[in-house]
Description:
This protein is mainly α. 75% of the residues lie in helices and 0% in strands.
Amino acid sequence: MQVIFTRAGFRRGVYRSLPVVLGLSPFGFVTGLVTAHHGLTLLDCVLMNSLVYAGAAQLVALANWTHPAPIVAAAFAAFVVNIRFALMGPALAPWLEKLSLPGRYASLALLVDHPWAISVADMRRGGRDAALFTGLSLPIWLSWIVTTTAGFLLARSLNLPPHHPIFFGALAAFLALLVPLWRGRVDILPWLAAGGTAAAVAQLLPHTSWYILSGAIAGCLAGALLDQRKTSHD
Length: 234
């Protein structure tokens, strides 16, 4: 496949990013509030959201944030949550491998779920313009920095108590991501295994990130056992 990189593709990506930017704005705002709530500075907030740029991983790390900062625990939590990118990146290989090395790594640095999904769908329809991914990614990245910074700056003015309902917004965002993944009754057992194991480990090992890995492994094992059982019966 001959890959191209055009201004038209970039503009098309920017246009298609606008609904995503609007949809993620409340999520970014809540992430900024949570960042301020845990005592990080404005510089910490801007650097984390521009360099780490992984809302799910950031919120998981912040959920266990204490003083002094748990560097190893936060890094491990980010690794577990972001390990999916090890599978997402290769899906873009037909586009990215045609770019220069700096362009390839710059693109991977902006890799998040929404631009990836839109780009892969375009690629499967025969799309050849890798600039679409860049046009999608840059506005979403910039808006993430802006909305998280806004949430951080407004946190002191709002002066919300620690258990204010708005902090449930981050958890609600994660729960909403499960809706399109639901396939029906076949998912009940793996989801219960993952959720139950994660809840148990969180109680046994509080203020750690082991519940994430434990829940993921339990869910995977339950799903694999169900698939194996189904295969043996067919």
